[in-house]
Amino acid sequence: MPLTNTEIRFYDSNILRLPADKRKEYHAQVDKLISALDKNLKDQTDIKITKVVKAGSFAKHTILRKTNEDPVDVDVVFYISGRNVDHETFSSLSETIHDLLIKIYPTKEVEDFTIQRKAATVEFKASGLSVDIVPVIEDPSRSGYGWQFDKDGSRMETCAPCQIQFVRDRKDKDSDFRTLVRLAKKWRNYSGLKPLKSFVIELIMAHLLDTQGSDGTIEQKFRRFLLYIADSELKETIQFSENIPPFKTFSDPVVILDPVSSENNVASRITEDERTEIVEVAHDAWEAAHFASAENDLEIWKELFGGRFKVEEAA
């Protein structure tokens, strides 16, 4: 017997979803960091902050609660004005913010602050929350849009509010959309498929919703996600109604267009070997899920989601 929507929603609410008290705690920590960083940027640099947006899985409500294999991170986008996009680099923006973070938190260890590809990162060890500070040079002609830089010298156009709205629009089409994303992310984490990034999962799930609709149970739609990866082998280009010209041609093994920027392939870092691994793991997972559904075997579902998988309170 397949899992019912009630059973999967129980698992999502009690095991996967970030609890309300933790969301409140993380919001408070992030707001304090934003306030301190905003003040110091104004006082100690010529960087002008026009807007700050909480982004990523936290803002989209697709984040998983923290476990040993499920980290908790929040992306905070700082929109910057008065800077020439042709003259700035990743280093000129992120390292400035990195230095200010150390000044703001002089009692914290320097090791708490790291420079990632696109952000300066601060980790709050007590709560385990990791915050990525993402500087974006705003485009004054397009609200919410701006340019984000990478360590390799490249830059891409982005719109954090638009990406949040994209997920909200799919949630309006299917009330279980975020639950499906969290299920897929938990499966990804338990399977160790690090190259399958959260944004990629969201977009694949959105593509299936757009092309196949919202009919079916949550379990059926999750198995549909696994089957799509296995059958398509991630060789189909995915794009959305939100995508507008200009378009470009990509030679990457996996091509999934960012719905807010048609010139950005969000799956560009997936290598051919990684694509093959993701497809193989998804195929095996689909077979396991199909068998678990037919046999009503919760132990097999645990092979996909881990030992904490449960669909009701213990007797």
Description:
With 315 residues, the chain is an alpha+beta fold. The chain has two domains: 5-14 and 164-305, Poly(a)-polymerase, middle domain (Orthogonal Bundle); 18-157, Beta Polymerase, domain 2 (2-Layer Sandwich). Helices cover 47% and strands 17% of the residues. It has ten helices and nine strands. The protein has helices spanning 5-16, 20-44, 56-60, 90-104, 160-173, 177-191, 198-212, 218-232, 272-295, 298-305, and strands at 48-55, 72-81, 113-115, 120-124, 129-138, 145-149, 155-159, 257-258, 261-265. The strands form two sheets. Strands 1, 2, 3, 4, 5, 6 and 7 form a seven-stranded mixed β-sheet that branches. A two-stranded antiparallel ribbon has the order 8-9. Helix 8 packs antiparallel against helix 9. The longest helix has 25 residues, at 20-44.
